[in-house]
Amino acid sequence: MSRGDAVTTPLFDYALRLADDALLLGHRLSEWCGRAPTLEEDLALANIGLDLIGQARQLYAYAGEVEDQGRDEDRLAYLRQEREYRNLLLVELPNGDFAFTIVRQLLHAAFMVPFWERLQASRDQILAAIAARSLKEARYHLRHAAEWVIRLGDGTEESRDRAGAALDELWPWTGELFEQDAAERALVEAGIAVDRKALKPVWDATVDQVLAEATLPRPQAGWMQTGGRRGLHTEHLGYLLAELQHLQRSHPGATW
Amino acid sequence: MAEQPMPLWEVFIRSRNGLAHQHCGSVHAADAEMALQAARDVYTRRGEGLSIWVVPSGAITASDPADKGPLFEPAASKIYRHPTFYEIPEEVGHM
To answer: Is the separation of the CB atoms in A179 and A86 below 8 Å?
Structure first.
């Protein structure tokens, strides 16, 4: 399809949001490298992190192409300020303990699987192609996280306490998964973007099923955090970006 | 509280259709499903696998290294068992 000027900016924003989500969650998982509870899990979390960073690279490259201002994936990832990031707040939160990391993976992957499934049918062929590739990765991410949550919840007293605490702490950050502004709704109308609101029942069903098996009570619906999509972040993002961007900021244009 | 050590599993990977599963190492995991996932994450990162088996290490009966003499040395003197005592005609090509 041809892209008129009117759609260009929302499409850039859309690709950028998805890229920011993937990059920051991938970066958080990379922080486990060398620190995970077992060698097996160290590799598993790094693998998943690399999948996400790979998704981010494709999305940034596409965003840069759509924007057509000469910004490539590196410039978008390394040379934007905190307020220019458009990610879900959920993915910028610090890793916490292993339970927190794993429960976040579950809450995120349970959304991304149906999201990528639907984005495969996007009228934007690049997004559809990225979705088809990412879906296979997300399905494994979901399986990995779900099996862990089941065992943590239905495991020892300590693992259960930690998984339950993580779930309660993370819950208010899940509302943003289903947020859509007017620009994104217009892309949904145009058959380009996925209707996030329509994914809520699917996400609920997946999460409920895993929590039931994990014997963890689902937290009460309540007030939800918001702001990431508008560039309003928690204090954690600045520290994350300081580490993520340090090399490019200190040695602009460095490559290897 | 003393933690229970996680059970050990032996991992077998089949790399291509038609080839047999080969032992490639071991992983620690709480149960069979987690062992499969761990095996996937540890041993198939470079596209090595089409199929994974995991087997509790305790289920494997191994020969005793001390039996090396009686078990294996008698074969050493029977080189005629190697298929190297005839020439393959050129017309046969690659076998």
So the answer is: no
